[in-house]
Write a structure and sequence with these properties.
- The protein is α/β, with parallel strands linked by helices.
- The protein folds into two domains: 169 residues, Rossmann fold, CATH 3.40.50.1400; 154 residues, Rossmann fold.
- Helices cover 46% and strands 13% of the residues.
- The chain has twelve helices and eight strands.
- The longest helix is centred in the middle third of the chain and has 18 residues.
- The chain is globular.
Length: 346
């Protein structure tokens, strides 16, 4: 029997300090998130970050936590809507925290599933997201569920259905506001991660040209896939080049990360005359602490402090029905069922 597993990043169990620490420990000790040798990662994470960062992270989560983590709630709702569209079992799981990957696979196995489509809910490939999640699923399958065969849905950053539903979501919200500029803010990663993912061992130079030059490296290049996401969405929306830009948020540490940094780019936009800024984060399919608090609060304050007048956060796809329909279509195609035509009108 076939089944599918929707995978997102995860959230702490609650806003209690110990749950925050436990989540950050599991997340940041992943060698694909902070790719230092274990001894150094242990020193940085457990010797420094977990002794200083949790209270601030706790305060951030408390600001957005209503009836649970938004990321968990939206993913649960999405899973429910998708399950109503397809004829086989669907489960959801988080790479870190609960519901765990192991429980997700177990629930499918208990229902008689032996072929699982893994759907990482990350549009672009990154070591810290898709690679980490699929590597962990492989480990769990070999150890606990050897009879289960898994297939991973590739990054969908350039899939027409995803681009259309993203463009529709953005256009709907832009119609309700006045704005001078649309900023595409992607979650950042260290530049080192881009080079480590380069299967050609030389194409990725991050020199402004490599992402536009066709290469096999683009299959695993997060930067290229982010830029391509922006290009395709703005093309679908018929936006002029001077009306939008991109940046990368959530930098951690002092090493070089992908540029431009959102925290620097936003003040520059305000100082250069942009008064009404709209911001969207296409690296996320569900709103979470990085969108609601980091962008919706911190980035807004930064923009206003530097002369901006109006700031508008464009919400993610979350549990929209048209997004659930797209995922259902992909699942049916994998399962060999010819899906009904899904039209997403802008």
């Amino acid at each position: 029997m076939k089944g599918a597993l929707l995978v997102n990043l995860g959230s702490p169990k609650s806003t209690q300090l110990e749950d925050i620490k436990s989540y950050l420990d599991e997340f940041l000790m992943d060698e694909r998130v902070i790719d230092y040798p274990y001894w150094l990662r242990n020193l940085v994470v457990r010797g420094i970050i977990l002794k200083t960062r949790p209270p601030k992270t706790q305060a951030n989560y408390k600001r957005i936590w209503d009836n649970g983590s938004p990321l968990i709630v939206y993913t649960e709702n999405l899973c429910h809507k998708v399950s109503q569209n397809v004829a086989f079992p669907i489960e959801m799981a988080m790479r870190y925290g609960e519901p765990s990957l192991k429980n997700g696979l177990r629930n499918l196995s208990d229902k008689g599933v032996n072929e699982v489509l893994i759907i990482p809910l990350f549009p672009q490939f990154a070591m810290a997201t898709i690679e980490s999640a699929t590597a962990r699923i492989d480990e769990l399958a070999k150890e606990y569920f050897p009879s289960i065969k898994t297939t991973v849905l590739p990054p969908f950053y350039n899939q027409p259905e995803y681009i259309e539903v993203m463009a529709k979501n953005i256009k709907r919200q832009l119609k309700e506001i006045e704005y001078d500029h649309l900023l595409f803010s992607y979650h950042g990663v260290p530049e080192r991660h881009i080079r480590k993912s380069d299967i050609t061992n030389g194409h990725c130079k991050m020199d402004g040209q490599c992402c536009q030059t066709p290469s096999e490296a683009h299959k695993y290049c997060y930067r290229h896939q982010c830029l391509e996401t922006t290009r395709l969405i703005t093309q679908k929306l018929n936006l002029k080049k001077e009306t939008y830009s991109h940046s990368f948020q959530s930098r951690l540490g002092l090493i070089p990360w992908l540029k431009p940094y959102t925290a620097k780019h936003i003040p520059d936009l305000a100082k250069n005359g942009i008064e009404k800024l709209a911001i969207v984060s296409p690296a996320f399919v569900a709103d979470c602490i990085e969108t609601i608090d980091e962008l919706g609060r911190e980035a807004k304050e930064l923009f206003i402090e530097n002369g901006g007048k109006e700031f508008h956060l464009i919400s993610c796809l979350n549990d929209r029905q048209d997004w659930a329909n797209v995922l259902s279509k992909w699942m049916d195609e994998w399962a060999g069922k010819k899906p009904e035509k899904t039209e997403i009108k802008l």
